[in-house]
Amino acid sequence: MRSIWEGADLADIRKGEAASLTEYDCVVLGSPLTAGSIRKEVGAFARRYAGELGGKRMRLFVSGLQGDAEDLYFQHPRSF
C-alpha cells in the first residue's frame, strides 16, 4: 500500500495489498469493465470486506470502452 496524498492510501487489491479497513472513513473502489463485467478481484474484495464496507462512505467508479473501441478491443486485444 502506498500513500498518494496526505490522508489517502492506494492499494492494489490484485496483489492482495488491502489491509484492515477500520482506519478509513471512506473507501473508493473502481474497476475497468471488460465485456460488461467488473474485474473478478473487485467483486471478491467487496464480498470479503462486506461487513467493514457496510459502515463506510463509499465512492465507486468503472471505466470501459464504448462502441467501435469495444469492437476493436475484441478483434485486437493485445493492442490495448
Q: How many strands appear in the DSSP assignment?
A: 4
Largest sheet: 2 strands, antiparallel
Structural class: alpha+beta
- Calculate the terminal CA-CA distance, rounded to whole Å: 26 Å
Strand content: 25-35%
Overall mean pLDDT score? 78
Helix share, percent: 25-40%
Number of helices: 3
List SSEs in N-to-C order.
Answer: EEEHHEH
Global morphology? elongated
Number of domains: 1
Strand order, main sheet: write it out: 1-2
Rg over C-alpha atoms, rounded to the nearest angstrom? 15 Å
| Low-pLDDT residue spans | none
What is shown here, in short?
This protein has 80 residues and is an alpha+beta fold. It has helices at 40-48, 50-53, 67-75; strands at 2-5, 8-10, 26-32, 57-63.
Report on this model:
This protein has 80 residues and is α+β, with helices and mostly antiparallel strands. The protein has one domain (2-79). Helix content is 28%, strand content 26%. The protein contains 3 helices and 4 strands; from the N terminus they run βββααβα. The chain has helices at 40-48, 50-53, 67-75, and strands spanning 2-5, 8-10, 26-32, 57-63. It has a two-stranded antiparallel ribbon. A two-stranded parallel sheet has the order 3-4. A hairpin with a 2-residue loop joins β1 and β2 (8-10). The longest helix is centred in the middle third of the chain and has 9 residues, at 40-48. It is elongated, with a radius of gyration of 15 Å. The model has no long low-confidence stretch (mean pLDDT 78).
